[in-house]
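I can't quite decide. Please look over this sequence plus structure tokens:

:::
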Amino acid sequence: MSQFSLLGSRRFAPFFWTQALGAFNDNAFRNALVMLVVFQMSLGNDMAALYTNLAPALFILPFFLFSATAGQIAEKYEKSRIIRYVKLFEIAAMVVAAIGFHTHHVALLLVVLFLMGMHSTMFGPIKYSILPQALKPAELVGGNGLVEMGTQMAMLIGMIIGNALMLIEGYGPTAASAATIGVAVAGYLASRWIPLAPAAAPDLKVNFNTFTETGRVLRIARTDKAVFNAILGISWFWFFGTVMIAQLPVYTRVNLGGDGSVNTLVLTLFSLGTGIGSLLCEKLSGKRVEVGLVPMGAFGLTAFGIDLYFSRPGVSPVPGLDWHGFLQTAGAWHVALDLTLIGVFAGFFVVPLFAFVQSRTPRDRLSRVIAGTNIINAIFICVASGFGLGLGMLGLSVPQIFLVTAVLNAFVAIYIFTLVPEFIMRFMTWAVVHAMYRVKAEGLENIPDEGPVLLVCNHVSFLDPLVIMAGVRRPVRFVMYYRIFNIPGLSFIFRTARAIPIAGRNENLDLMNKAFDTVDQALADGEVVCIFPEGAITRDGDIAPFRPGVETILARRPVPVVPLALRGMWGSFFSRRDSAMKRMRLPRRFMSRIELVAGVPERTMVDAQLLRSCVSALRGNCA
């Protein structure tokens, strides 16, 4: 079922429209304020510049002051009720804004801007912590993609409409006021349809001391190393995006020779690209949290960021072009493609990271982890603003700033992926499997989302573990023959996935016993373990008798058993149908169809041959 079906579900649709309308209003109000100050109040350049530079700081300040409190409130209380209170607060803020618009009271409007920052601060922890409560695990990536797409489109439309309404001669303040109040009311009405989202930690005692609780929230965010590094990746996304977007107005005027319509076009391309990339994540990931897309996103950001520098490095010879005239100039479509693809790969980068944080963080602390993420995001945004200004003061042109940022992105990505090798491991797995095969998955929803599970599967090829890793939503620990575990190249993937090497009793008794102990501890910790009970890759395409090791595991630790079957792998390049000499040739089957099928969980079956019968029935005649 497509992710777009969520837009027709009450579990998701009211929340989607509530957050999209809020993002619209944030940007419509901010841009209407800028248009009023810069174009309608006859202020001097210095005073106008002061207000326009003060505005972003006032909007971001609440993230530092109130994120920790917002995370606690989102954890302690039922979320849909908090959302309704936040929406009522937004309506009140927009009424005050209307007074400021009509009286041209800039100080009052700056206060409203601070209040809208508070609105976003309170909504942020709820925005991402409510999704795992409302959506099934298989819907999490698609839901995050829709939220990211909706946010980008709402922000873009809000910027455009906020600008346009305030510039209506004679009626600008009235039009802007009516629109922002109307959208705030619509957001509140949509919020009333959001289903109940019970408190994750109702016994939590709220600490209103901003400084001590901020430190505590950041410590909670650092509890899981992989999650914290994903948070750093999200914050880096905001750094990269802030630097790029802050340069676009000057880039449009100086390097593209465009007017305001070209600036709108540039923002539209970037936002559309991010929305498209966000939506594609579900398709590319197979509806699972696939952090393997993150390295691909990082690569695309660097590659097309560098290409953007080379596409238009100098000053435009013709100024004042509208969007149609700009598209007629040499290299314009090259620039447009680069901006769009930077957005697409930004979606590949950030959506899996958000889904990863949501899926790996316990429910009773997720809101506080998201609050910690918002604090770190705010820090990175502030640093990004100073970074862009600093490079400009050093004399770098906007294309050169793009180049420096793109190159820096490569170094930051390498650093993050070195800290969390799982990202690269998942990318390698995703790339290899999708380059070789078209995988059809069936019945994988039978694998429980939580708790210990033992997977048993037929063994057809050297790539069987990678196919299973690419299909199963939860991290899987494989028990594999130690010689396969040590295969060069694949060894990095297996070690990063914490595979468990095993040897036969006559080869290395100590290693065998250690493997059984490790399996037992993994199941005790609630992990997923997969074994290939045949003990070796099939040499004739048939399923060999299952060895008694599976019985030993289940006798020590009775857990649910899910039988798996691989279909269509026999005869592939990595199977043993051909001799070793023939396997040295180039693969003859690219993008061949294979299937991964899961049966229903068994809780009482400990007999190896009965398990073999289950796997054989799932495989059928498709070797």
